[in-house]
Amino acid sequence: MEPSPAPGELGAMLQAAGDFASYPGLHSDDAVRQFLERCPLPKLLGALQSEVDVPGMVETVTECLDKVFCSRYGASLLPGYGAFIQAGLLTDSKGIRKLACKAVLNLLDKAEDSAAAVETVVQHNLYPVLINCLIEGDEEISTIILDSVKRLAEIPKGAEIIFPPDGQGSVQLDRVAFHSSSLARIRILSLIAKLFTVSSYTATAIRDSNLLSIFEDEIKDRRDMLKTLSALEVLYELVEHPHSNIFLLKTNLLQLIVDVINDSSADSVIRSRAALISGRLLSSADAFTVIDQSCVTNLLAAIDKILEMEESQNTDEIESALETLGLIGTTTQGAHFLLTSSNVARHVVETSFDRQGRGRQLAALHAFGSICGVDRQEDQMKLDGQAEEYLKRLVYTTAANSSKLTPSALLLSILQQDPDIRIAGYRAISGLVVREWCLREVCLNSEIIRLVTDPTMETTKLGMEARYNCCVAINKSLSSSHLLHEKSLSELIGKLNDAVRRGPYLSERKRVEARPVVVPAERF
């Protein structure tokens, strides 16, 4: 137990601590060092353990110590105060517990000697206490714990505390989750998601520890909508990690996600989130090397069912389904699968040119651009013969069934709509024109060329860049096409060259120079 300040010096120390805590921003190391020379750290900690009841004392000292430990100098002192941190984590005082939680984070994040920081965690058995605070603490404390444990995992020796090489750690997260409340399980899932992104070591340890099964259990049990949605939200964050799909697709998670999408009794918000998770899982080329294709077929059938709904059904769910198809179509393998193994891609093309729902049309146009390869490397934009033929047939069929009759007229109609639709349209055209048939459709419509080369067409930075990228894509495709030598297109080619040379932001509008104006005095 730290020595408490003498009654005579307590008031002066609290005054100094209050002044130190009220300083806006962080203190420099020199300022912290000078403060601790006047108010030694042992006495400040002793004040928190003192039985003297002074109103506001705990709040003042904890705020002051938080400022101390946030500095590098203050954090460097923490290895010598592991016993205080442990006691603080175990106390019933929320303020002191919060201070102890932040002290662990500062210890791991700012201490110059990471080995000494990890040794402090081991020596005082802080990791199990941290997990207990994660489960039992309020939202603010649990957020600090999540960051602290993640930081511990980022230190190689620290990761071994969480996932010992022999698998016999003092805390088994799956067992803790099994005996915890639904809120605590969601927090453990959040911790797993954070740890997963740290390194291949932690990701592999999570897989080998069978911790991903906790996600499966939470998603399987759909009796509590909020619990299921919370688990899906955490999983949605997890699948943002670039290599997560390699691990997750080797579990039963994708099939469970398909079951959720197919569950007509589930809330549309849950189905929408499940659909987007599936899209993220399948948005990398590696995904199709590890997944059973029948599972992907089942997924596309579930999404097709959503898109076949009557217009009175949930619009957000339909937009999420279209976005999911765009995510899957980002890779060559995904786009090929969409076009050759299912009819679901027709919804993307048809809705791209359907003005009945603006949100749906936007989602479809973005998905259409992804399937056409706008996000892929240049040499991977085009697909194999079968997929390309199906894409061409889809576009021509959609045009023939519309009032526009031709693909060029359809594309022009997109560029005549509001700015957001136009931006999505530029993107889709940029992907389409690598195909000779679409390049011809675009080049033979002088109005399309006029719009995409018009520097005054867009007023936002995003719009200008999208229009310019579309110009560049058309110009680049033309440069390697036999259309380049058609005399009838010489004027068009000149327009495109000028537009590319101008760049995205320069306008042809004449600048009006400021002129001095002379006003007779009698006017005033």
Automatic annotation (TrEMBL):
PANTHER family: 26S PROTEASOME NON-ATPASE REGULATORY SUBUNIT 5, 26S PROTEASOME NON-ATPASE REGULATORY SUBUNIT 5-RELATED. One of its GO terms (biological process) is proteasome assembly. This is ARM repeat superfamily protein. Coiled coil: none annotated. GO terms for cellular component: cytosol. It comes from the Eukaryota. Signal peptide: none annotated. It comes from Panicum virgatum (Blackwell switchgrass). InterPro entries: ARM-like, ARM-type_fold, PSMD5.
